[in-house]
């Protein structure tokens, strides 16, 4: 009788804590939306005079949020043990991608990367990680996540990423999000520039496609105005990006999660890029998150690896993607 009573109290306590977390999140969102103008105006210091020509530099590194361990005390404790300098690699996995997780984990261990964490979406992955001494975290039960997490394809699981990453950022940790179809040859943290809200791998395969170019559209019927200039850049890979714990970064996660919920047929990578790129316009408030493109020779996608570059034993690149 006593054990049963204690178990019921524990379950009730867990439910109340979950409700309290949800209320706190709603209060934070409400507070952020009081005034659109004030959202964009953050005064970090006294106004300064403009310096000499060529010496002026604007801010692109937003300040980190104040960590809130109450959001998820269990995850906070685990991250304190696993993370290095408040940074961690995170990968989501269920049983459908177990074979890829084996390869992923083997490359992480071979390189000697200590700060990584597998977010297990079913019990089989928890058991696999424990048997192979892989750092693992199993989320608390959530009906909105569990069904897709346990039965979904690799792409469906990728869509859950943005919802799950929010807690990591709220706890004050920078995350290098990695899909499971990744191989590491060196420690990626040695080659990142943590100066932007989001730093992402590119689907581009050369300087112009990865870093941007002026694409000119020719319409002869327009006479002297026939040439229309467009700015083009190939998409960021939503399966491999570094994200800092800032307000714009968390807002990005919220926006992508909201759209994927309302638009179930949307592709998470397309939504991710649209929310990062589209500017404010009549009827739409854009997201003012700073972004950086990863070096495409260091963080290689499959097109760069198999078409642009010859695969050699002496290859110095350290990150490969099977995409």
UniProtKB/TrEMBL annotation:
Single GO molecular function: glycosyltransferase activity
Alphabetical UniProt keywords: Cell wall biogenesis/degradation, Coiled coil, Glycosyltransferase, Golgi apparatus, Signal-anchor, Transferase, Transmembrane
Coiled-coil annotated spans: 2-33
Subcellular location: Golgi apparatus membrane
Its membrane topology: Single-pass type II membrane protein
Subcellular location, principal: Golgi
The protein's Enzyme Commission number: 2.4.2.-
GO cellular component, one term: Golgi membrane
Every Nucleotide-diphospho-sugar transferase domain range: 113-307
Ranges annotated as spanning the membrane: none
Family, as annotated: Belongs to the glycosyltransferase 77 family.
Protein name as catalogued: Glycosyltransferase
Annotated organism of origin: Nicotiana attenuata
């Amino acid at each position: 009788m006593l054990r049963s009573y204690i178990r019921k109290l524990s379950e009730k306590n867990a439910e109340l804590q979950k409700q309290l977390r949800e209320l706190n999140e709603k209060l934070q969102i409400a507070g952020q939306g009081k005034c659109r103008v004030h959202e964009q105006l953050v005064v970090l210091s006294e106004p300064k005079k403009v310096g000499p020509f060529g010496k002026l530099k604007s801010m692109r590194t937003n300040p980190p949020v104040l960590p809130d361990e109450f959001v998820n005390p269990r995850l906070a404790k685990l991250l304190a043990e696993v993370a290095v300098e408040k940074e961690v690699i995170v990968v989501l996995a269920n049983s459908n991608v177990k074979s890829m997780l084996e390869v992923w984990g083997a490359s992480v261990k071979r390189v000697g990367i200590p700060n990584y964490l597998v977010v297990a979406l079913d019990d089989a992955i928890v058991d696999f990680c424990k048997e192979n001494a892989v750092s693992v975290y199993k989320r608390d039960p959530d009906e909105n996540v569990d069904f897709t997490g346990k039965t979904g394809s690799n792409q469906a699981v990728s869509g859950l990423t943005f919802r799950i990453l929010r807690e990591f950022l709220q706890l004050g940790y920078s995350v290098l999000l990695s899909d499971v179809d990744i191989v590491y040859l060196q420690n990626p943290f040695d080659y990142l520039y943590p100066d932007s809200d989001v730093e992402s791998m590119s689907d581009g395969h050369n300087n112009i496609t990865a870093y941007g170019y002026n694409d000119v559209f020719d319409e002869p019927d327009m006479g002297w105005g026939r040439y229309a200039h467009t700015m083009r850049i190939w998409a960021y890979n939503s399966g491999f990006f570094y994200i800092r714990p800032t307000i714009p970064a968390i807002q990005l996660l919220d926006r992508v999660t909201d759209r994927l919920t309302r638009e179930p047929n949307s592709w998470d990578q397309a939504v991710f890029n649209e929310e990062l790129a589209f500017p404010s316009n009549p009827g739409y408030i854009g997201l003012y998150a700073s972004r950086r493109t990863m070096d495409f020779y260091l963080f290689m996608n499959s097109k760069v690896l198999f078409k642009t570059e010859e695969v050699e034993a002496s290859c110095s690149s350290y990150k490969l993607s099977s995409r």
